[in-house]
């Protein structure tokens, strides 16, 4: 039986969201070729992108999320919903090894991505995060120009090509180009909150990821900006697989193809609360005919 326990790395591996001058050498830690996304023509939309098998997450030895088994599908939007503390963000962070950066965090089980265990010893977490980008709750642009915010990631990963084109394409994909094309040298902090979040999405897309993880990306935004992000998600899901944590049931129902409902299991007592996946299915089914009573109670607002 292989040891599938992983402890948090002491190596302070930089993420794509850390604007330091350090560079990660992709040649020094070349990720297995299996992690490379396949061309679109070879990948029907029914393909599994993450096959999660018995995933547990512990913080300082204490179980926070237990036994998550679910296939997440390619070029679909999967929404993770559930009451506060059920482990949505914790599980999301497993999908690009962001939990590695949390001291004391430990992931057990398997997450198979393009046929390879994401946590295998020879897999470089920096490369993982290049393929699997992340957008956070609060827009977090770097204190740099709009242009430099986008160019930072491609430079770090050593992307070839004309940087102006890379920046333009990323901004276009995030529906931001028309808003900012005449002020690319302006500081990103001068943008509205909604624009900043689209900039963060553009920044994630600039390194040509395969998957986009979004942790409550609209919770700090007004309804109009939220609509724009939702429209954007629906546009880009043709090219990317998206997993989103949301507290907004309408948002999950509007944008997602599949929904995973998590709950907090209190059966071992309040101090041993643990998040569990209750149900994962087509979004319409989760919202109209869920299998589990707890799902029904949550989506109808009876608890949570
Ligand atoms: N860095 C951490 N260190 C220790 N415990 C943590 C850490 N992050 C989360 N937890 C614990 O893990 C459990 C799941 O938390 P998590 O934030 O993943 O839940 P969530 O469903 O995303 O919650 P919310 O909807 O409130 O954001 C909680 O009990 C939380 O206290």
UniProtKB/TrEMBL annotation:
Renumbered residue ranges of the record's region Disordered: 1-47
Domain ABC transporter per the UniProt entry, residue ranges: 50-289
Pfam families for this protein: ABC_tran
Biased composition (Polar residues): 20-29
Chain intervals with Basic and acidic residues compositional bias: 1-17
Domain of life: Bacteria
Alphabetized InterPro entries for the sequence: AAA+_ATPase, ABC_transporter-like_ATP-bd, ABC_transporter-like_CS, P-loop_NTPase, PstB-like
Keyword check for Transport: yes
Keywords: ATP-binding, Nucleotide-binding, Translocase, Transport
One term of GO molecular function: ATP binding
NCBIfam families for this protein: 3a0107s01c2
Cross-referenced PANTHER family: ABC TRANSPORTER I FAMILY MEMBER 17
Protein name: Phosphate ABC transporter ATP-binding protein PstB
């Amino acid at each position: 039986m292989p040891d599938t326990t992983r402890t948090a790395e002491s190596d302070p591996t930089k993420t794509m969201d850390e604007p330091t001058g350090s560079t990660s050498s992709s040649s020094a830690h070349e990720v297995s070729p299996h992690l490379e996304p396949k061309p679109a023509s070879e990948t029907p939309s029914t393909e599994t992108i993450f096959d999660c098998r018995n995933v547990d997450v512990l913080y300082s030895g204490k179980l926070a999320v237990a036994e998550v088994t679910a296939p997440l599908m390619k070029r679909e939007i999967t929404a993770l919903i559930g009451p506060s503390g059920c482990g949505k963000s914790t599980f999301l962070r497993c999908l690009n090894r962001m939990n590695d950066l949390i001291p004391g965090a430990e992931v057990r089980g398997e997450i198979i991505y393009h046929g390879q265990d994401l946590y295998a010893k020879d897999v470089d977490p920096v490369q993982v995060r290049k393929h699997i980008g992340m957008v956070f709750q609060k827009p977090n642009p770097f204190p740099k120009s709009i242009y430099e915010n986008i160019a930072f990631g491609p430079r770090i990963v050593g992307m070839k090509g004309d940087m102006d084109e890379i920046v333009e394409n990323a901004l276009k994909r995030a529906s931001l180009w028309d808003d900012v094309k005449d002020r690319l040298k302006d500081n990103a902090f001068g943008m509205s909150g909604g624009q900043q979040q689209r900039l963060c999405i553009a920044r994630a897309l600039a390194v040509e990821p395969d998957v986009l993880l979004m942790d409550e990306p609209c919770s700090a935004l007004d309804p109009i900006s939220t609509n724009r992000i939702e429209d954007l998600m629906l546009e880009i899901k043709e090219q990317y697989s998206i997993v989103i944590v949301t507290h907004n049931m309408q948002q999950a129902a509007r944008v997602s193809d599949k929904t995973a409902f998590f709950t907090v299991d209190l059966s071992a007592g309040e101090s041993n609360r643990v998040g569990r996946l209750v149900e994962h299915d087509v979004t319409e089914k989760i919202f109209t005919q869920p299998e589990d009573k707890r799902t029904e109670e949550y989506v109808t607002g009876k608890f949570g």
